[in-house]
Structure formats: structure tokens, C-alpha cells
Amino acid sequence: MEKIRMTTPLVEMDGDEMTRILWKMIKDELLSPFVDLKTEYYDLGLEYRNETNDQVTFDSAEATKKYGVAVKCATITPNAARMTEYNLKEMWKSPNGTIRAILDGTVFRAPIIVKGVEPYVKNWTKPITIARHAYGDVYKGSEMKIPGAGKAELVYTNEAGEETRELIHNFKGAGIIQGMHNLNDSIESFARSCFNFALDTKQDLWFATKDTISKKYDHTFKDIFAEIFENEYKEKFDAAGIEYFYTLIDDAVARVMRSEGGYIWACKNYDGDVMSDMVATAFGSLSMMTSVLASPNGYYEYEAAHGTVQRHYYKHLKGEETSTNPIATIFAWSGALRKRGELDNIPELMAFADKLEKACIDTIENGEMTGDLYLISTLENKKKLNTEEFILAIRKTLEGLM
Ligand code: NAP
Ligand code: MG
Q: What is the atom index within ligand 1 of the atom nearest the CA of 304?
């Protein structure tokens, strides 16, 4: 069989620990035999980040701007323990944070649904994709404890030195206050990323805030989304047969619970933090959650939502058997290859991505799975495989589909 050719390289961001082991196995067993893989390789493993003073992370993000599509392995975000474990020169920042800041993107998380792993909400038959605005609000807030009686105000001083004031509260006793902000630019980028991603995946987009209570702050989010939608996206949405829908956050929560899924739910920063954990848990498993960073300029970075699965890696180092789920990492590759195929007009590459995903799902639905799914699957004839066995089982299914 002739291998599928690629024309433009994918930006390949290698990573750490167990996911780095999975990365190589996925390439060797599931990609290279079928695709003449063209990638520009960046090693974001912690050792090389440390060696290059994290320059490699910046370079990989710049390469993503150049080529448009990247696939990323999970990486360690250093903490105090990692400083000694890897003898680091500095506590390097989270690569995801660095890349997100350079691409100005929004992260979209979606579950992979398989028979046997049933969502806790029984009517959720299609994935719900959460888009979380990743800038500002309480995450960049300033807070103050008010010790006793006194007046608290918001004060804005413009460059000419003129002040605008707004009373927060006339305190009679002790209390607390909080000031937070957001930026129109950031909200606009968030909106465009969401509208683009909805068009890309042909799903409706929902957005919700509390604009009835927060008449300036949340209302600005609502207005910016509405304006960008009317001016730039309405016709495209009509042509694609999809809808943009705004409602209040409490109404959105009620509708989400009653829905069958199959849409994107855009959330403000805090709502996204809370709701993404709820939705991920309700769909059953962290190891079955994909993540895409989509920029307003149309750059994409695909990855798994989980981390480097450190506990399994230490077992692996001791020579013990592991049963680590590679599905989200495989879907990062299939997502990136499909997007590359779409941009470069290579239908065979897109078809391969579809088959690779189908091979993953079919293998699990035939009862072959890793330990994490074995624990929760309701299938009767289920079998727990180790890491290698499971990847080889997917390879066998894939060969049958090719
Ligand atoms: P984690 O890697 O997501 O793993 C937490 C636990 O979830 C695992 O111990 C395992 O449970 C289960 N799990 C996660 N993925 C799994 C998979 N594919 N297959 C089977 N089980 C899976 O989180 P962590 O251990 O807290 O973090 C490890 C490192 O990852 C940290 O250094 C952190 O900085 C980094 N991290 C990176 C990213 C990223 O690059 N996007 C995201 C999050 C965390 P059991 O042990 O019970 O089997
Ligand atoms: Mg959270």
C-alpha cells in the first residue's frame, strides 16, 4: 500500500513522561505505516526546555503561526518538586500558557463518546464542547479586606488625569471588595475564535453571561459577541445551517442539562473553569477528552486534555506493566492531520483521520480497552489490555478499515 503524502509539515510538539512514551508508539504503530509523515519537530520535553531556556516553546508557537497547525503532547508544568527532579535553572512557565499567549487562542474541549462509557446525564448523546475565555475577570482581580466603616469606590484616571468614580459601597462595618477587568480586544478574539470554530465543526454556538445583573461588565461581552456575529458571521452561519444563540447563564445551565449535546458552549473565564470540570466528569473520563487551541487568526493546536500521567510513567520506569489510555492523544493527531488535509486539499489524509478515530472507537466498543475505561465500561465482554496491547489492537482494527 502506498503511503498518504503530505504537502505542508505539521508542527510536532513532543512532551513528557508517559505521554511521551505514548507519542512514539502512536507514531510508530498508527501513523508512520500509513502516512508519509511530514512534521517540523520541537522537543517540549522538560529537559530540552530547560536546556534552551524555554526558547523551544516560543519557537514552536512561532512555527504554528507559520504553518497553521500543530499537535502537542502533554508537558510538565514545573513546580518545586520538578525543580529538583529535573535540576532546573528556573521554574519555567506552563508551555500551554506560553503558546496560548502567543497564538491568542481559545481552548475548546470535547469528550470522545463510546458505547459502554455512559454519560451520567443520560440524554447527552452527542459531545458538548466547552470554550473557556482564558483572560481576565476574577483571575486577574485585585481584592481588599475592608477592616471597618468607610467608603469604597472604583476610580478610573485617564491619561489627562481626569477621574471617573463609581461608588461600590458605604461600609458601616467590616467587609470585602474585589476589582476585576477585561479587555475589548481579548473578548473580540474570544468571540472570533468561537465563531470560527463553530463554522469549522458545523455546530451551533451558545453563549451566556449574567447581563441582567451585570449591566455594563457582562453586557459588554454580550454586545461584542452580537456585533461581531451580525457584521462578520451571520451570513456564514446561515449558509452552514448553524445558529448562534445567546441566553442568560442560569437558563443556559438548565438547557444544557435537558439537551442531547452536539453544540459549543462558550463560557466566560470562571464559568468555563467550573462548567468544564462538570461536563468532563459527567461524560465519564478525563482520558477521553480532547482539547484544541483555536486562534482568531485561524491557527490550530491539538492536544489531549489530560496531563503526562506521571504515576503510570514511574511504574513504566520500574519495568511494571501500564495500561495508559492513548485515545485523547491519538485524537490530537487525527484532528491535526484532518485539519492539514482540509487546508492542503488532501482528501486521503482527511479520510485517514476519520478511519483512525473509527478504529479507536470500534476497538473499545468491541470490548478491548485500557484499565481506566475497563473500570467504568458497562460492556459485558470487556477485556483490559496493557498500553502496548491496546495500541496494537487499534492498529489491527485500523488495518481492517484501510
Ligand atoms: P494527569 O497526567 O492528567 O493524570 C492524573 C490521573 O488521571 C492519572 O494518575 C490517572 O489516574 C488518570 N489519567 C489521566 N490521563 C490518563 C490516561 N491517558 N490513561 C489512564 N489514566 C489517565 O495529571 P497529573 O498526574 O496531575 O499531572 C502530571 C503532569 O501533567 C504534571 O506535571 C502537570 O503539570 C502536567 N499537566 C500537563 C497538561 C498539559 O500539558 N496539557 C495538563 C495537565 C497536567 P490513575 O493514576 O488513578 O490511573
Ligand atoms: Mg477547574
A: 41
Rounded Cα–Cα distance for residues 194 and 200 (Å): 10
C-alpha 10 – ligand 1 centre gap (Å): 25
Separation between Cα atoms, residue 109 and residue 276, nearest integer Å = 8
Which set of grid coordinates corresponds to residue 51?
536546556
Mean pLDDT across the chain? 95
Say if residue 1's pLDDT is above 80: no
Q: Are 214 and 252 in contact (CB under 8 A)?
A: no
Residues lining ligand 1, Cβ inside 6 A:
74-77, 96, 286-287, 303, 306-311, 324-325, 372
Instruction: Tabulate helix, strand, coil % of the chain (nearest 5).
Output: 45, 20, 30
Other CB atoms within 10 Å distance of the CB of residue 179: 13
- Point out the ligand 1 atom lying closest to the alpha carbon of residue 371: 20
Measuring CA to CA, how many Å separate 75 from each of 26, 44, 209, 287, 305?
Answer: 17, 7, 32, 15, 11
Distance, in Å, from the CA atom of 221 to the CA atom of 271, rounded to the nearest integer, reads: 13
Residue 373 buriedness (CB in 10 A; 0-12 / 13-18 / 19+): buried
pLDDT tens digits, one per residue of 341-366? 999 999 999 999 999 999 999 999 99
Contact by Cβ (8 Å): 298, 257: no
What is the per-residue pLDDT for 14?
98
Backbone phi, psi, residue 127, to 5°? -65, 150
The answer for residues whose C-beta is within 8 angstroms of residue 357's C-beta and 6 or more apart is 330, 331, 334
Measured torsion, CA atoms of residues 306, 311, 314, 319, in degrees rounded to the nearest 10: -100
